[in-house]
Design brief:
This protein is an all-alpha fold. The protein is built from nine helices and no strands. The protein has one domain (3-8, 23-179). Helix content is 76%, strand content 0%. Helix 4 (40-52) packs antiparallel against helix 5. The protein is globular and about 50 Å long.
């Protein structure tokens, strides 16, 4: 599947797209290529946005690169968490499925990163929260958990993802502050 179709389908018809994703082999290379392209959106737009508000070039560049690299770390760690938690919620352990679930659930977040290009529109990044719904919807299909336990499973993953994001955000902020 090409990238544009995957992005469109995961946003517009997620229930159908999760079925398609479930039938795929879970090629780690493809999944991380997807991450590489989409995670570049908030990194590049954030770089431009921070330059617009006067952050020095080196600081903005370091923050963008660090944020970009940490996107991969975040996807991987959240996938590990989803995989480890699966049996607790009646699902099956399958890291390939957890990786696909995590990467594709982050799609709206990365797309909403376009708003970082204009600092005053950064609040529109909240549109990325659609990824929470995508995660919830994809859990029964990819991790084979019972539908009635998917909400609690999603909440557990999201709490862990928020903690990871706070830690990563703190690291990026420290880099930015030190470079100013």
């Amino acid at each position: 599947m090409d990238l544009v179709s995957r992005v469109k389908n995961i946003i517009v018809s997620p229930a159908t797209e999760w079925q398609t994703v479930d039938r795929e082999t879970g090629d780690v290379g493809y999944v991380f290529t997807y991450v590489a392209i989409l995670a570049a959106i908030p990194a590049i737009c954030g770089f431009i946005g921070t330059k617009l508000v006067g952050v020095p070039l080196v600081g903005a560049l370091v923050a963008a690169v660090l944020g970009y690299i940490l996107s991969f770390v975040t996807v991987y760690v959240v996938a590990l968490i989803a995989d480890v938690l699966a049996p607790s919620f009646g699902g099956r352990k399958d890291f390939g499925s957890a990786l696909k679930l995590t990467a594709y659930s982050y799609t709206p977040f990365w797309l909403a990163g376009i708003f970082a290009i204009i600092p005053y529109l950064g609040f529109l990044g909240i549109l990325g929260l659609y990824g929470v719904y995508l995660l919830y919807l994809g859990l029964p299909t990819l991790m084979k958990c019972p539908t009635e336990r998917a909400l609690l499973y999603a909440v557990a993953i999201i709490v862990c993802a928020i903690i990871i994001s706070i830690i990563i955000g703190g690291l990026v902020s420290m880099v930015l502050i030190r470079s100013i």
